[in-house]
Amino acid sequence: MKKNSKEAIVTAAISLFNTNGFSGTSIRDIAELAKVNTATIAYYFEHKLGLLEYCFTYFFEQYINKIEEAYASIDHGAKGCLKRLVANLLHYQCENNHLASVVYREMSVDSQIVREIMSTYSLKEKYYLQKIFEKGFEWNEFRPHSIPYLIIQLKGLLMMPFMNTNYLREVLYIFPNEPFFEQKYLKEINFWIDKTLSFEIREKKEAFIK
Amino acid sequence: MKKNSKEAIVTAAISLFNTNGFSGTSIRDIAELAKVNTATIAYYFEHKLGLLEYCFTYFFEQYINKIEEAYASIDHGAKGCLKRLVANLLHYQCENNHLASVVYREMSVDSQIVREIMSTYSLKEKYYLQKIFEKGFEWNEFRPHSIPYLIIQLKGLLMMPFMNTNYLREVLYIFPNEPFFEQKYLKEINFWIDKTLSFEIREKKEAFIK
Amino acid sequence: MKKNSKEAIVTAAISLFNTNGFSGTSIRDIAELAKVNTATIAYYFEHKLGLLEYCFTYFFEQYINKIEEAYASIDHGAKGCLKRLVANLLHYQCENNHLASVVYREMSVDSQIVREIMSTYSLKEKYYLQKIFEKGFEWNEFRPHSIPYLIIQLKGLLMMPFMNTNYLREVLYIFPNEPFFEQKYLKEINFWIDKTLSFEIREKKEAFIK
Amino acid sequence: MKKNSKEAIVTAAISLFNTNGFSGTSIRDIAELAKVNTATIAYYFEHKLGLLEYCFTYFFEQYINKIEEAYASIDHGAKGCLKRLVANLLHYQCENNHLASVVYREMSVDSQIVREIMSTYSLKEKYYLQKIFEKGFEWNEFRPHSIPYLIIQLKGLLMMPFMNTNYLREVLYIFPNEPFFEQKYLKEINFWIDKTLSFEIREKKEAFIK
DNA sequence: CATGAATGAGTTTTCATTCAT
DNA sequence: GATGAATGAAAACTCATTCAT
Question: Regarding the domain delimited by C1-46, which CATH topology (the fold level of the hierarchy) does it fall under?
Answer without folding.
Answer: Arc Repressor Mutant, subunit A (1.10.10)
